[in-house]
Each structure stands twice: as C-alpha cells, then as structure tokens.
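Researcher: Please translate sequence to structure tokens.
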Amino acid sequence: MPAPDPATGVMLRAAADFDVRTARDPAQAREFLRAHPVPVAIVVLGRPVGTRALEELLREHPRTRWVALCSPAALDDAACRRLVAEHCIDFHTAPVEAARLRQTLGHAHGMARLEAALATQPRAAEPPAAESQFARLTGNSEAIARLRRQLRKVAAADAPVLIWGESGTGKELAARSVHEGSARAAGPFVPINCGAIPANLVQSELFGHERGAFTGAGRARPGLIESAAGGSVFLDEIGDLPLDMQANLLRFLQEKTIYRLGGTRPLPVDVRVIAASHVRLEEAVARGTFREDLYYRLNVLALEMPALRERREDVPALAETFFRDHARERSAHVRGFSHGALEAMRAHHWPGNVRELHNRVRRAAVMAEGRLIQPHDLGLDTAAMPPLPLHGARVQAERRVIEAGLGAGKSITHVARELGVSRMTVYRLMAKHRIAPPARKREP
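Model: Translation complete:
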C-alpha cells in the first residue's frame, strides 16, 4: 500500500515477481481488499501521520501478512511504532534495500501458501485436552510471594487447614499445593463442593452407607472422606454444610473415625482435612449458621487468598499463562495481547478474580479477529475506565514508551538515545516495569 517515493520505487522493484496493486490511502486499500483479499501487503509510513484509519485497515485483515516500510520520522512517532509492532510481521527502514525486501516478501508469501495448503487438509484427530485449572500460582507480586511462603510451611505440617478467599481466587489450587507439598502427596486428593451436594445426600456422600441403609442401597459404599484415606480431603465452601453434618464432621476431626449411614461400628480414617470458604466463618458463627467448635477445629492453619485487584501486577503473567494453556483452541492467527489489551486488563477491577481473567482470555483467544487481542475482544470497555491519578499515568507512560521502542526492534542504546537518557536509566525502567530485554540477534 505505498504512498510517496522513493519507497514506492523500491517496493515495485522488490515485488517485480508479484502481481502488484497500489492504493493511495487506507480508504482505497480497504475497498480493494474487501473484494480481493491478498496474503501479503506493504504499508508505507513516510512520515508521522494519523494511524487510526491505518490501524482499522490492518485490524480488518488479520490474515494478511503486513510488511512496513518506515522512514526515520515515522518511527519517531509512538503511534506508528505501536502500529508496526502489533500488526506487521516485519519492517524496513529507509533507505530500503530492494534485495532484503524481496527476501521478506518471498518468505511471507511462502508462509501464506503453506498456511493455505494446511487449511485445505483434514485435521488429524487429537486426544481431548485436559481441562485447565482456572487459576495458577503465577506472578511476582508480594501478595503471591507471601502466599507461596505460607503454603510451603503449611504443607510441612499435618494439621487441618482453613483457606479463605473470594470466589475465583484459586482456593482449590492452593489446597492442591498443600497436598502435593506434604508427606501425603502419594495419597489421593479428593475435592468436595459442600454447596453442590443436595442436603438429603450429604450424609451418604461424605460418610458412605451400609447395605440396606435406605431404599435402593443394594450394597455398601464408602463415602468421599473414606476414599481419601492416606491423602487429603478438600471441603470447598464448607460454610454451606448443614448444621447436623457439621456435628458429624466435628466428631470425625476429634476421633479420626466415621460412621457410615446405617452402620453401627466406627471406621478409622487417616485423612487430612483442608477446608475453604468464600464467606468469613467467624461471621457465620456470629449468625449462628456455623458451629463455633468446628470453626476452631478447622482454623488451625489459616490461609487467605489475595484478590486479583490486590495483585494487578500479576495480571499480564496470568493472562500469558492462560493464553498458552489454550494454544490448541485459539485461532491460528492470534499471536498475543496488544498494548491496549494489557492496559485494559491492568485497569480492570476483576470482581470475578482469576477465574474471570481465565474465562475472558480463553474466549478472546478463540474469538479475536486480529493478530493481537484487543480490549474489546476481552469485553473490557476502555472508555469506562476511571482516569488514573498523576503517578499512575506517569508509570503507564514510562512503560508504554519503553515497550514501543523495544517492540519496534530497536536496541536499548537506540531507545536511550531517543529518550535522551542513559542506557542504565533504560535498564532501570525495564526492571521497574518487568519488561524483558530484546532477544539478541545471532551473528551470521
């Protein structure tokens, strides 16, 4: 999509072996591409210009491999750098070498042909992917680092554990970590959602039943607690357990024995109890919906799961983890998150915590139409975001300008020169914002 010379002339020489069509502006290019989609296209950025129309054009055609021809003046513009980094597979700066550009175009065209050939072949049957956990202990925030330290200590003991946290914070994952880090790791881990069991079946499900205990009980069956012998049982949402079942659980914790429904003899069971709740059990005790003696029996080793809004710096790492987890599901052209998407995720309040983040990323990875996931793909409205305080705006501006410079393929020395600071300052800002250094190019 060339504009001014001399870049147009170089482009035409490099693309001599291809069928070339030119457009004078994004509107003309959009009209042509809607009727005649192409696998490879060139966008010429001869000077800093408004990028909104260009970005809309490139986003409308995510399967086209875009190559940018940039003047130094264009790369001085942050919006142009972001456009190149997010939508183009490669870029060339003036003066452009026709031979090198020809090599880029040939490679891009070859990859497009390969992708088209694969799309026409029937897909081999794949085994169903294992269901991903909705949360991981991922991140470098102080809150998650403190939780990891606590989990290691709790895992080394064998006392009951009580985990509190809002819905979606990853309480089951924490419980599994306790089990897998304990001496009981070789034993079973049995999760039980106390709120999902019908009240009339709780006794039988937890403690089992003997033959003839009720109509239809043709044989004896061990309960879930008994099936966890030698390992750990995870009682999720224990605050939903009926009061009469709370008494039976208290007896088990005190005596380490259970009675099956319809049974008369005690059965010893060696199992560690890990319980979790999204409500404060001390408040439930005050309301009379939870037994005080059971609360103190469970609350020996207490853990609190941090809400995602309390560790926003972990959001990008979590999002990348979920993006990789669903590599088999996501569209082939989706490569990652745009700068705008990362900013929107950092600003979101996350009432559903890590579970909400996981679901939004998984949906966006499947439904996104561009190469990079945008805020609207995540269902996040950037216009509704509250304005940042001055310090927060300055921090985001620092991160944005460093990411834009490095994302455009520039060296740290080049970025430092453009910003008018030392290389050490750039390294310090990269460490502050956890920006990975650019990969070193291998010498031929």
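Researcher: Any highlights?
Model: The chain has a mean pLDDT of 81.
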